[in-house]
Amino acid sequence: MSKSRLFNVDAIILRRTGYGEADRLLTVFTADRGKLRLIAKGIRKTKSRKSGHLELFMHSNMQIAEGRNWGIITQADTVEAFRPLREDLDRISQGYYLAELVDQFTEDNDPSYPIFELLALTLARLSDGSPGEQFLAVRYFELHLLRLAGYQPQLHFCLACNKPLQAEENYFHAADGGTLCPDCGEPRAQARRLPLGTLKVLRFLQTRPWSEAAKLQLTAKTQTGIEQLLLDYITHILERKLKSVDFLKKLQKQRLINNS
């Protein structure tokens, strides 16, 4: 095979499915080629040398041979395994969520190094962080992925009258893509109340570096409000429910039962 048909990529594995008796199809996000669909031949055989380098959410360096339908992974080496993430059910469920978001918000062969970097950093934060840091890392990821994908919610001005928001309860309207003042939001169908504390946290996560965002201490009520607001907004943009969210909700429900 000629060298011109070979290329190397740094990639994070978003999804994988069995193919045939011994192969796997992988969806990966790469630093310089965007999202790719690749085939790993023979990876399900017990003697495969590549299998340990191509686990879900791994950051790997891959050598790819151009194929007719999919690129073929000829060699793989682990850059970062994020092992703790895959050894804990809470962490791995969040990993599935991040991977599904990237898969849904990106197109094949459309490179975005900032999205790749954001995903890699967030997987590291999920892998190493405390439960509180994990929550903040996912919300930080959501807001900054929305920005990079062109869907950043407006959180400083009323989208209807363009006036700066005051320090009071305002409204959030997913279809409009952001906030409304009380006068414009109250009569608007499907506009949800936005407590001042929730708005402040959203603004902080949207505008401050992670080193500052990671220090936030949130009440359970504020966490729930932020999580649901962002999920509703993302669901509206994608026009579909995310499969990983159902898994997360089942996990949270089971945790409540176990702790009761």
**Roughly what percent helix?**
40-55%
Number of strands: 8
| Overall number of structural domains | 2
Spans of at least 5 consecutive residues with low confidence:
none
Shape descriptor: elongated
The CATH superfamily of the largest domain appears as Recombination protein O, C-terminal domain
Proportion of residues in β-strands: 15-25%
Rg estimate, integer Å: 20 Å
Average pLDDT, to the nearest integer? 92
Main β-sheet, spatial strand arrangement: 1-2-3-5-4
Instruction: Look at the structure and give the CATH class of the largest domain.
Output: Mainly Alpha
Order of helices and strands: EEEEEHHHHEEHEHHHH
Judging by the overall fold, what is the CATH architecture of the largest domain?
Up-down Bundle
